Amino acid sequence: MDDISLIVGLGNPGKEYERTRHNAGYWWVDAIAERKRAAWKRESKFAGWATRIEEGGRDFWMLKPGTYMNESGRSVSAFLRFYRIEPGAMLVVHDELDLPPGTVKLKKGGGTGGHNGLTDIVEAIDSKEFWRLRIGIGHPGHKDLVADYVLAKARKIEQEAIDPAFERSLDVLPKIATGRMQDAMTWLHTSPKVEEEKPPAKDAIRPKDNP
Questions:
Q1: Which terminus, N or C, of the chain has the lesser number of Cβ atoms within 10 Å?
Q2: Domains of the chain with CATH codes
């Protein structure tokens, strides 16, 4: 079991960035805070906003770095040091270029895929061994287009794919909060079943009575 003590949502502060693809991490922790009716508090010592929520009989922290994305490590490392939280007890929620819209996946460790926020966190805490919840936003097709792509809003067709998977991913919180990360991965990576409409059984089809 991996006990999660901190969930970090990555994004850029400011109204102009609120609905951009790069702020998917902010979207997620904001949605959880809203469900829990938890209020964010600006914490200057962490250069960000923090709140504490309860799930599965445990209290744990959520953090939104108030720095820009490429300086996320400053906020995260300060929080980990202050509360003496190990990297393995942290989950970072972020947008993922390598996953198509409508996909959300969970993993631990690995590379950063060029994500500026993840890269800065890894450098600041000197570890890759933390959990990541990856919200797929798709790729623009060429690396030179990435900067403008992530700082723009998703197209309507993309957002329509993102929203159901995003909403479903919020329901994984009880498993994450209680350290059942393998269960969380299995549930999250299994597409919800869509039941096909089956024809009625033969014996259920009865001829109408003649008048």
A1: C
A2: 6-193 (3.40.50.1470)
pLDDT in tens, 134-156: 999 999 999 999 999 999 999 99
Give phi and psi for 100, each to the nearest 5: -70, 155
Q: Which of 22, 94, 139, 189 is catalytic?
A: 22
Query: Is 22 annotated in the active site?
Result: yes
pTM: 0.89
Asked whether the beta carbons of 45 and 61 are under 8 A apart, the reply is no
Q: Position of tokens 């990541």? A: 132
**pLDDT tens column, 16-27:** 999 999 999 999
- For residues 19 and 156, what is the distance between their CA atoms, to the nearest angstrom? 12
